[in-house]
Predict the structure.
Amino acid sequence: MGQWVLKLLLFIAALAAINYPALVNGYPLLYSDSGTYIVAGFINYVPVDRPYFYSWFVRHSSLWYSLWLVLLAQSLILFYVLRLAVRYLLNLKETFIPASLLLIGLGLTTGLAYNNSQLMADVFSPIALLCASILLAGKNIKSNHRFWLVTIMLFSISVHSSHLLIISLLAALLWLVRLAYKRNPFFSERKKNHSTLVFWGIGAWLVIGLFNYWLDVGFKPSRTGNIFLVARCIETGAAKVYLDEKCPDAPADLCAVKDNLPPHAVAFLWEFGTSPLYDSVCMQNGWGNCWIEKDKEYGQLVKNMVGYGPSRKVLIDKCVSDSWKQLGMFDLGYLTPMAEGSPVYGGIKDFFGGEMTQYQNAAQYHQTLHFETASKIQRWTVYIALLVIVVFMAVAIKQKHYNVAMAFALTIIIGCLINGVVCASLSGVVDRYMARMIWLLPLAAVFFIWQWVLLKQNAKQSSD
């Protein structure tokens, strides 16, 4: 009886630790994208600017009753995956208490709680990478656990366009490493897991394409991905270089303003009154219609800009420099007020009317939320974690002891690097792109320390 009480108390503490920003705020944290995620799921509409799957998750996990239940569902999925990590990476049979303690520690010292408290698809970024890491480093994974790891990983990939590219690149890299070290015992012992990761990591393109086809938006991973790519080319300056040379053979709407293009991708995408993306004709049926009408033409434009040497050089140079910046930027940033007139107000009013008083009394309804202290704590936690990983990895390499913790840490590091490069190159430098995953580094450091403790204990028992 005492064990169950302890587990219950630790579980409640873990849930509180990874949701405390929302608890302090008085309501789940909201981002401008949260409005689309709320509405699209309830009206069964595939948004033009993002995948449908997180909207579907919000609709069903909320039980049409409360957005707090969405945070609970996110927390339970994370807790389950972390228990599998403890089981197969630390080789512990009892996983409930260790997973609870890990969530408490990570929730209080990293941005995990900040991301888990938000109504955003970013919460599934680290979950996708964590599932992939377990499949890579774990051994003798039970078939039912492998099934759930793959299922959760595929869903986590599907909720955000960047996840698809990140996990696919990780899977492709694993496949190349396997070819080079196919006789290595580490890979041979995990052959089935690795085949599963490579197959589904790359096969996710097909799965998501089929889902989108079924949802009547075409057999493609993104409904209007070319719009975002053009916005990025405009922000980097590559579009200006191309248009100066190729107009009037380029799209007329861009050639008309080639000397006065929006300075940032956000301005091109969302400033309806000034952006060349919108015109009076396409806006008659709503701004989303402009995206749909121009996506194909802009897709050809992206290919042309990449194929044209001068604009390609500008684009590559900017992507490289931004990638370096992104890797070092993982503060929690701030959240703007979400009051009446904000992107989320209508969705909450229409579908969660019973929570309007609670929503209107939340701190974020009235003011900008800053997280400076939490960012400072996270920075020190990450720096210490990196030091621990480097030291233990150097010792492991020197002693030629390539253990599971090392494989897990390398996967997390590589995954975070890919995440930073992909997001910075295709979208731009934003703190939240790295903040959403960076808490996995302290987790890897803890696994390294635990592995070292176990090795010391085994060595002492052997000597005795």
Q: What stands out?
A: The radius of gyration is 23 Å. Residues 39 and 429 are 28 Å apart (CA to CA). The chain has a mean pLDDT of 90.
